[in-house]
């Protein structure tokens, strides 16, 4: 993208991306709210109860490279519409799998949901492409703020639809989720972004090996990966842990709702904080909040403990992930953007998949407390990456 841009078009694009984030983000909220519950009902073994959520994360990681190729060759809007098609398909397949009681088909559905979520997370970088460099952190965070509505739409979609067809709980929920994905596609169809340049299509710019050796990029990827992995690691286990400790599905839904709101509400001002204090300080604060959420979880298993833990976890993720994403914007030239951004997201979500796969097994075998204690180790790794990265770039 050149330095010349149309402010009116930029505002329209950012607004549409924020609305689409609100609608499309409900996909992930629905799967996280009930994926492990449905998994526990359908799985042949209780240790596989969180496998559908893990495959959601695998779908995110696996589909980032092809969505990046589509964006590089045909433009971001084409990638957005491809992702929306995956979202509609995932919702309809999930409805069928619950109706038939087919665990492995439900796993296929959540994989499609992950493919959709991978594309949705590229909205933030698309917003940054629309504006002047000084405005990029703010545009990125404003689109992420659309997730506040997703935090309401997703859990309330579950609460409002799960008993509409009593013999088949959650079937209508997934049909509704598919309809929301289709509505998001209509919003995205109006986004107007610059088409890829010939140099970008050809993969111009520095070699990938040179790009990944940048200290700033290593720091950004490590902190982004840890922030997202821990958020997913704890959020995957929390609804099931609440059930194990005798709390209702409605309380689990509300906890997830406030968690998702906490993930995205700070985005209304995260961009300004990054501009004022720098991305590194915001990321550090996010990691501290994530650590605090773990300590709250260790303090007790009442509903209030789970809710406060999830809220702190959400805010910590926002500062950590948005701050790390802002760092990534400093690590590439225009012709390198889709390659670097896709590589960042691929590493982040591949790491996240590890946490997701281990979460359910740890919870069912060793309990909620061990899940919380294990989460402290990646935080130390991220803190070390911050120290070394800041020292190398100072």
Secondary structure tally, helices: 18
The gyration radius over C-alpha positions equals 20 Å
Any guess at the CATH architecture? Up-down Bundle
Q: What percent of residues adopt helix (DSSP H or I)? A: over 70%
The quaternary organization reads as single chain
Superfamily (CATH H level) name: MFS general substrate transporter like domains
| Unreliably modeled segments | none
Beta-strand percentage range: under 5%
Which structural category fits the helices and strands? mainly alpha
**What series of H and E elements makes up the topology?**
HHHHHHHHHHHHHHHHHH
Can you tell me the number of structural domains?
A: 1
Termini gap = 29 Å
CATH fold title: Growth Hormone, Chain: A
Shape: globular
Q: Could you give the count of β-strands?
A: 0
Mean pLDDT: 85
Quickly describe the structure.
The protein has 394 residues and is mainly α. It is built from 18 helices and no strands.
Q: What features would you describe in this structure?
A:
With 394 residues, the chain is mostly helical. The protein has a single domain, classed as MFS general substrate transporter like domains (Growth Hormone, Chain: A, Up-down Bundle), CATH 1.20.1250.20. Helix content is 81%, strand content 0%. It is built from 18 helices and no strands. The chain has helices at 7-42, 51-74, 76-100, 103-120, 123-129, 136-145, 147-161, 171-188, 198-201, 208-212, 215-244, 249-264, 267-277, 279-299, 303-328, 337-366, 368-374, 376-393. α2 crosses α4 (103-120), α6 (136-145) packs antiparallel against α15 (303-328) and α7 packs antiparallel against α12 (249-264). The two termini are 29 Å apart. The relative contact order is 0.15. The mean pLDDT is 85. The chain crosses the membrane at residues 17-39, 51-71, 78-96, 102-127, 139-158, 170-195, 216-236, 256-275, 282-301, 307-330, 342-364, 370-389. One of its GO terms (molecular function) is transmembrane transporter activity. Residues 178-394 form the Major facilitator superfamily (MFS) profile domain. This is MFS transporter.
């Amino acid at each position: 993208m050149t330095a010349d841009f149309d402010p009116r078009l930029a505002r329209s694009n950012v607004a549409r991306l924020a609305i689409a984030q609100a609608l499309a983000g409900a996909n992930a909220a629905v799967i996280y709210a009930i994926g492990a519950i449905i998994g526990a009902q359908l799985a042949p073994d209780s240790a596989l109860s969180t496998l559908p959520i893990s495959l959601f994360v695998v779908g995110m990681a696996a589909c980032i490279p092809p969505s990046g190729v589509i964006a590089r060759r045909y433009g971001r809007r084409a990638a957005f519409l491809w992702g929306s098609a995956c979202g509609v398909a995932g919702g309809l397949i999930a409805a069928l799998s619950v109706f038939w009681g087919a665990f492995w088909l439900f796993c296929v559905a959540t994989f499609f949901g992950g493919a959709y979520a991978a594309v949705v997370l590229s909205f933030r970088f698309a917003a940054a492409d629309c504006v002047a460099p000084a405005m990029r952190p703010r545009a990125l965070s404003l689109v992420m703020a659309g997730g506040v509505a997703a935090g309401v739409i997703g859990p309330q979609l579950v609460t409002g639809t799960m008993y509409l067809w009593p013999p088949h709980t959650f079937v209508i929920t997934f049909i509704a989720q598919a309809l929301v994905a289709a509505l998001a596609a209509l919003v995205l169809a109006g986004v107007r972004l610059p088409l890829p340049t010939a140099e970008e299509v050809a993969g111009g710019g520095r070699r990938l090996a040179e790009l990944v050796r940048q200290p700033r990029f290593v720091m950004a990827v490590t902190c982004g990966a840890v922030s997202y992995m821990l958020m997913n690691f704890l959020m995957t286990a929390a609804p099931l842990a609440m059930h194990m400790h005798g709390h209702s599905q409605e309380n689990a839904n509300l906890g997830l709702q406030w968690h998702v709101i906490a993930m995205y509400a700070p985005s209304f001002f995260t961009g300004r904080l990054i501009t004022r204090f720098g991305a590194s300080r915001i990321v550090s604060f996010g990691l501290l909040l994530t650590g605090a959420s773990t300590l709250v979880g260790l303090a007790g298993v009442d509903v209030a403990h789970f809710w406060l833990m999830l809220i702190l976890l959400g805010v910590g993720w926002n500062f950590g992930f948005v701050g790390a994403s802002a760092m990534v914007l400093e690590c590439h030239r225009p012709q390198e953007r889709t390659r670097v951004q896709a590589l960042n997201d691929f590493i982040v979500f591949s790491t996240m998949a590890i946490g997701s796969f281990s979460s359910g097994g740890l919870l069912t075998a060793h309990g909620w407390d061990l899940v919380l204690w294990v989460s402290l180790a990646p935080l130390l790794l991220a803190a070390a990456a911050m120290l070394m990265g800041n020292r190398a770039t100072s």
